[in-house]
Write a structure and sequence with these properties.
single chain; mainly beta; 10 Kd Chaperonin, Protein Cpn10, Chain O; six-stranded antiparallel β-sheet; two-stranded antiparallel sheet; 10 strands
Length: about 100
């Protein structure tokens, strides 16, 4: 697994699509509200916070939080051991919110 560094967060894309029994995908959550250029993901790991004037900054995010960020502001990763899940490295400053 990759350990994030320098203010990055490692997260995996949340599966927010719902399917009916017949296989029809129902628009829910972000897609239904027109946020197709945003990604909802779960935090897997967080880089150690940097020191500002010798004092460690407080963590705003914790592992397991569901976050929201724009697609273009992240790096998508393809990991050999898990090709079915989409992983992203996102800068903490690019996270728009916690859901």
């Amino acid at each position: 697994m990759i350990k994030p560094a320098n203010g990055y967060v490692l997260c995996k894309k949340s599966n927010v699509e719902k399917k009916t029994e017949s296989g029809i995908i129902v628009a829910t959550g972000l897609r239904q509200k027109g946020y197709d250029d945003h990604i909802q993901a779960e935090i897997i790991d967080i880089a150690i916070d940097s020191l500002i004037d010798g004092i460690e900054t407080k963590e705003l995010f914790i592992k397991g939080d569901t976050i929201l960020f724009k697609k273009g502001l992240s790096e998508k990763l393809e990991l050999e051991f898990d090709s079915k899940t989409e992983y992203y490295l996102v800068k903490k400053d690019d996270i728009m919110g916690i859901l």
